[in-house]
Structures are given as C-alpha cells and as structure tokens.
Amino acid sequence: MQPSASADGVPERLWDAALWDLLRDFLARSGKGVRAQLVTAGWHLGGRNATTIPPALPLLVELVHAGSLLVDDVEDGAETRRGAPAAHRIFGEPLAINAGGWLYFAPFVLLQRIPVSGASRLALYDRMSRAMLQCHEGQALDLATRVVDVAADEIGAVVSAVTRLKTASLMRLSIGMGAVAAGASAWDVTALERFGERAGVALQMYDDLSGLVRDELAHKADEDLAGACPTWPWAWLAEVAGPETYAALTAELDACAADAPRRAALRRRLADHVGEHGRACARHTLDAACDALSTALGPSPALTELCAAVRTLEAAYVQP
What is the pLDDT of residue 48? Predict the structure, then answer.
C-alpha cells in the first residue's frame, strides 16, 4: 500500500523514516502464520476447494495481528518479539504505536480489493470491526488486572474472558472470514467460527505455558510475572492447588516484581504445579474443537488437514 494521495510530494526518505522502515523490519520477521492458515482453511471448508483463495484475504488478519503485537509490546514493556528486539526498542514508542494503528486500518482498505460480493464484503467488514473491538476490550482487562487483586475463585473467569476477547476472537475472525468469502452457508460459518474460538483458547493456553516449560522462552513468563498478568497458569493453579499454595505463590508476585532471580524461581514452581495439567487442558480443548467441527460439517480431507495442523501447536509452543 502507498500513502494517501494527499501526501504527494513528500520525499520517500521521510516516509521510510516515519513508517516504512519499521513496517519492513517487523513484517519481515517470521511468525507461525496460524491465522492465515485458518483463513485458508475456512475458504476451502466453505466450499471453494476448486478455486484459488484471493491472496490478500489471509493478509487482512495477519496485518491486524501484527498491529496488535506492536502496540501490545509497548504497553507490556516487552524487550523482544519474534527473535529480535521489539520494534519500539529500535524505532521508539511513538512510531511503534502509530505503525500499529496504521496496521489496524490498512486491512479495511485492502478489503475493498477482495473479489467478493457486496453482501460478503459487508459481512467481512462487520466481523473485522467487532473482532477488533473485542481485542481492545480484552487488552484493557489484561492491562488493568493483576493476579494479586483477583480471588482464586475469580481468576479462571478473568483469564478465560481475556483469552476469548483477544486471542480467540482473532482466531474466530480468521476462519470465519475465509468461510464468508467462500460463500459458505450460515450453518457452516457458525460451526467454523466456534472452532476458531476454541482453537484460539488452546493457542493462548499453549502460549502461556511455553514461557514456563521452555527455558529459551522464559522471557515471556518473566514479563508476565513481573506485571502479575492474569494468565492460564494462575487459573490452572487455582484448579489443582489448595488455597494455601495458591495464596503463597501469588504472594510471591509482589516480592519478585523487581527481582529477576526470584521470578525465575517462581516460574519453575509454577511449572512444577501446572505444567502437565496445562498441557492436558490445551490438548483437550483442541480435541473438543476438532470433534465438534467434524460433527457439524462431516469428515473431509480438508477437515482432517486442518485438525492435524492445529494439533502441531503443542509441539510448536511447548516442546523444544
């Protein structure tokens, strides 16, 4: 995409410094592409197996996701992203926030170029708008809530809500967009969106767990522990540990906020308590999602391929 026509005459070097250098750097970093894969799966399962998916369609959700990462990293004070320094560490917070906002709006312009009917385009626009609103609501809850301020019998609901509003809503959007663009029936779109939401919950479970069980990803858990963020390990701890253990470990959060060695020790203790339980919960969530979709749509090679792909998330996130 190019800058707006009203910006004609601005030297390219100024645009590079203002926007393009940051975007080129960040978008070139390799991600897992899970959301783009879901868009493509939704297209094929929605009834367009014989045709080629519009190349820009999977890009819409990936751009929204990239924008959310840029902004989230500033809000969370993250040091790294996708194997390199976080964008705001390189280009500064103002440019990173602005680039993230640009990536929220660019997909709505690209949407006008997708070759679908007017009704489908309107449905896609509606889904994108609602998902982005939910993502911001989830991020607000995530930023404002600390584990130490939430009772053990409340933490599960809080973590679930943050997950469904953020990660799950974007996964639901991904597969739903593919299905809508393919002209799928309302029944199939609903079934696929439910699958996407459940897969999103499992993805966040694996992501939260990865920082506990993989030393090379320990920085993720360290950031969450430093901010006392409401993540799945705390929800699982409330399920499997007694009240005294839960109270003792949450009490450690304030004590280790500025103490990296104590955070590392707390990370290991959490992993001991919830590591296997967390794996089982994420695996069960994915299996239930695949079973429900198979019941709704019936077996097919495309469905088998989709379920095989999402089941690789466990290896991608929690196995070295």
Answer: 63
Task: Say what the pLDDT of residue 4 is.
Answer: 61
Query: Residues in the chain, how many?
Result: 320
Range(s) of the domain holding residue 262? 31-314
Contact yes or no for 61/36 (Cβ under 8 A): yes
pLDDT bucket at 255, cuts 50 / 70 / 90: confident
**Predicted TM-score of the model (pTM):** 0.91
Question: What does DSSP assign to residue 53?
Answer: P
Q: At 147, give phi and psi (nearest 5°).
A: -55, -40
Res. 45: pLDDT tops 60: yes
The CATH number linked to 151 is 1.10.600.10
Q: What is the pLDDT of residue 254?
A: 85
- Token match 């695996």: residue? 283
> Is 17 inside any structural domain?
no
Does the residue 7 lie in any domain?
no
**Which residue shows structure tokens 């955070």?**
263
Q: Which of 4-18, 35-49, 116-130 has the lowest mean pLDDT?
A: 4-18
Residue 84 three-state SS: strand
Helices (DSSP H) in the chain: which residue ranges? 12-15, 21-27, 34-45, 56-76, 87-91, 93-111, 118-144, 152-163, 169-181, 186-213, 218-226, 232-240, 243-255, 260-297, 301-310, 313-318
Q: Which two tokens stand for residue 8?
A: 């004609």
